[in-house]
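Task: sequence design from structure.
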């Protein structure tokens, strides 16, 4: 059964994006609106856990929507010392704090690595947003560390799954799409997402398998690609051609409600 849409959802997402857009970062508007819709619609109780906050762009989108609907805090986990995004010895923490100031009461900040937080984490999660270390080891560790706490009906989402990184797309294909515990799944922009539904995930086996078939050709092209290195030449062209076959258009809140219901 489709989920009921809040009457003011479109207005809320618009206001949340207006607050988010000025903050530096790599989240596009369709991606941000997807996260906001998840924060509003996911039919489960629990926290929103964000792994990788950088300067607070996705944090603000998520916290603005969650605060509006009274659905709990965003748990923002990031050591704020990314060697890929920052010069050695620099930090994004001051910018992060300044940018999230309007929603700070709705954010629980952990200035730490996800690997440091995961061993003692014991709270249910309804949205697991993974946008941290994009190496295979990093993305795999993030999923393994927090997935046991994702509640049925909750959603896991990876950023940059369709960009030139090995971790997000490989973990999504090998660990999420291959698992009968997951149901609806898809891509929006460069976000890969899936809903955890252990009771009836097997009903979605064909849909997940079809998505895996068109996504899997990316894996050998981004294998061992890390530390911000980019593809070159024929390999880059093959990556673009393979990525072009993957449907990744924005989806409306109404469509998302149908998928998650």
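Answer:
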């Amino acid at each position: 059964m489709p989920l009921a849409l809040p009457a003011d959802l479109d207005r809320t997402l618009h206001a949340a994006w207006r607050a988010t857009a000025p903050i530096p970062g790599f989240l596009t508007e369709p991606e941000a609106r997807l996260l906001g819709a998840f924060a509003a619609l996911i039919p489960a109780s629990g926290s929103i856990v964000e792994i990788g906050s950088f300067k607070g762009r996705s944090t603000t989108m998520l916290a603005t929507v969650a605060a509006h609907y009274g659905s709990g805090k965003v748990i923002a986990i990031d050591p704020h010392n990314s060697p890929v995004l920052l010069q050695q010895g620099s930090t994004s923490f001051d910018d992060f704090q300044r940018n999230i100031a309007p929603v700070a009461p709705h954010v629980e900040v952990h200035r730490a690595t996800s690997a440091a937080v995961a061993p003692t984490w014991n709270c249910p999660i309804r949205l697991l947003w993974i946008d941290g270390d994009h190496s295979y080891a990093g993305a795999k560790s993030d999923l393994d560390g927090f997935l046991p706490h994702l509640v049925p009906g909750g959603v896991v989402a990876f950023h940059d799954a369709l960009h030139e990184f090995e971790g997000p797309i490989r973990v999504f294909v090998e660990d999420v799409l291959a698992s009968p515990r997951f149901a609806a799944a898809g891509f929006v922009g460069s976000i890969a997402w899936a809903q955890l539904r252990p009771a009836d995930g097997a009903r979605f086996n064909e849909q997940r398998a079809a998505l895996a078939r068109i996504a899997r050709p990316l894996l050998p092209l981004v294998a061992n690609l890390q530390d911000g290195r980019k593809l070159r030449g024929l390999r880059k062209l093959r990556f673009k051609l393979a990525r072009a076959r993957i449907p990744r258009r924005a989806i409306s809140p109404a469509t998302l409600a149908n998928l998650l219901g």
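The longest helix spans residues 29-41.
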